[in-house]
Amino acid sequence: MTPSSPTALPGTAVVPLQYAVPGTGGIGPAEAVGAIERVLLNGFDPEAAPARSAVPVPAGELLMMPAADGSYAGVKIAGVAPVNPARGLPRITGSYLLLDGPTLQPLALLDGAALTALRTPAVTAAALRRLAVPEARHLVLFGSGPQAYGHLDALLAVRPLSRLTVVARHAGRAEALAAYGRGLGLAAAVGGPEAVAEADLVVCCTTARTPLFDGTLVPAHAAVAAVGSHEPDVREVDGALVGRAELYVEARSVAAREAGDLLLAGVAGRQLWNLAELVRGDALLPAGRPRFFKSVGMAWEDLAVAAEVYRQAQA
Q1: In DSSP terms, which residues pair with 69 in a beta bridge?
Q2: Counts for the chain of helices (H) and strands (E), in that order
Q3: pLDDT digits (tens, 9 = 90+) for 45-80
Q4: Are 277 and 293 contacting, i.e. CB atoms less than 8 angstroms apart?
Q5: Residue 107: exposed, middle, or buried by beta-carbon count in 10 A (0-12, 13-18, 19+)?
Q6: Residue 11: CB atoms within 10 Å
Q7: Is 128 exposed, middle or buried (0-12, 13-18, 19+ CB in 10 A)?
C-alpha cells in the first residue's frame, strides 16, 4: 500500500504514509499499534478528547477531527463518499495536518485516507491482543476492502494466527483477500456468516447497516471487533451478541453518541470499559462470555500515528 501524497502547504513537509522498510519514513502495523498503546500508557484520557465534527454534503459527509497531546497537535479533514467505490475511487478521502504542539506551526501534511487505513486496524489490534484468548488462531474477517487488508496485517503483527475465513459480498474480492492471507502463511478460504461459530476472533470492517451474522453462534471464548461505522443508527452486530458479551469501547463518551452497534442493542446501564482501561490492565476480562470491542474512530488515534510517522521520517 503506497498511497499518493498531497501537495505540501507552505512551511510543511509532505511525509509519505506507507507500509515501508524501517528508515524510509513509513511505519508498519506494529509501529502504529505501539504508538496507540504508548499514548494511553502515558496517561492520556480518551474520555476528554475533542469530539468529531460531521457535516452532511451532497456527496456524503465531511469530518473534522482535531486533537492535541504534548509535543504535537493536528487535524484530519476527511470525506466519506459512499458512491466512490462504484466509480473505482476510495470511499474515504482527506488530508492530515500535523502541527508542533507548543507553537501550532505546521510540520507535515499526510494522506488522510492512508492514515485512517493504518490507525483503525492499529486500534483494533491494540484491543484484540488483550481480548483474545491465548490460544486464538482462527480469524473470521468480514469485508474485503482496504480496512480488511489492514486489519489482517495489524492482527498478524500482534497475534500468531494460523487460519483465516473471509466473508464478503463480492466473491472475487473475497478470494483475493483469502489469497493474500495464504501468501502470509495462513490456511485461508472464503466462507459464509456461519463461520463465526468456529471463530476465535471476528472482525467486521464493512459498510453494512444491519447485522452481518447471528450473534448466538459466536463461541463464548471469542473476541469480536466492529469498526465499520460511526453512525448511531447503523450496526454490524446484533443485539444477541451485545447482550452476551463484555463490552469495550474507545471512549464511553463517544460510544454514547456514535456506536450504533451498542445503542441499537440498548446498553444503557451496562458497564463499558474504555481502551485506556483495557491497555493499562484495569478492565475486566471475564471468561465464559464473548468480548466485544466497538470502535468509531477518534482524533487522538490519528494524532498518535501521524506523530510516529513524522518522528520516524525525521530519524
Answers
A1: 72
A2: 9, 14
A3: 999 998 889 899 999 999 999 999 989 999 999 899
A4: no
A5: buried
A6: 8
A7: buried
C-alpha cell of 173?
Answer: 474480492
Q: Which three three-digit cell numbers place residue 74?
A: 493536528
> What is the distance between the alpha carbons of residues 230 and 238, in angstroms, rounded to a whole number?
16
Longest dimension (CA), the chain: 56
DSSP one-letter code for 103? T
74/66 Cα distance (integer angstroms): 6
C-alpha to C-alpha distance for 120 and 147, rounded to whole angstroms: 8
* 72-82 pLDDT tens trace: 999 999 899 99
Structure confidence at residue 13 (pLDDT): 54
Please report where in the chains the cell 504508548 appears, as a residue. Answer: 38
Helix spans in 51-145 (H)? 112-131
